[in-house]
Specification:
Length: about 150
């Protein structure tokens, strides 16, 4: 589901009134980022970035990274041979946020889907945590500062 302009910030504030936002990302920067990544950003993520260049949640956690970090971290994860020796392939994932403790959240690129998965860096597991970006924001920013909210899901 795509939210009309301004509603991403509103959705975040409903779950986390103290959340911090960046400046909106101009369309030319989004297009440049997609060119560098070699793929389109998921529509929900692109819409959110048009309103804010990242979302900082509880305790300074980068719930949604700024666009520059999305690009740089994904390019590094997709190309670093050291990661290839340690972890399952990262190419199917598009990382966009973290919990502040090393675990990272991603869309699946191949095949494209709206669901959000967590990559737990300690054991290289990847699990479903939310049905889409709005669901992820609600879950990750709700009820205080539990940075392990996704581990309590059944």
């Amino acid at each position: 589901m795509t939210l009309r302009h301004g509603l991403w910030r509103e959705a975040v504030h409903q779950s986390c009134p103290e959340a911090e936002f960046g400046e909106p990302v101009p369309p030319d920067r989004l297009a440049e980022a997609e060119g560098r990544l070699g793929c389109r950003l998921p529509s929900q993520l692109a819409d959110l970035l048009r309103e804010t260049d990242g979302v900082v949640g509880h305790d300074g956690a980068d719930t949604v990274w700024p666009l520059g970090r999305i690009v740089e971290d994904n390019l590094r994860f997709w190309s670093d041979s050291g990661f290839a020796a340690l972890y399952m392939p990262f190419q199917p994932l598009l990382f966009f946020g973290d919990n502040g403790g090393g675990d990272q959240f991603a869309f699946v690129r191949t095949p494209p889907r709206a669901d959000i998965f967590v990559w737990e860096h300690e054991d290289d597991s990847r699990r479903w945590v939310a049905g889409d970006l709005r669901d992820y924001l609600g879950r990750s920013l709700a009820d205080g500062d539990d940075d392990d909210w996704y581990r309590h899901r059944t």
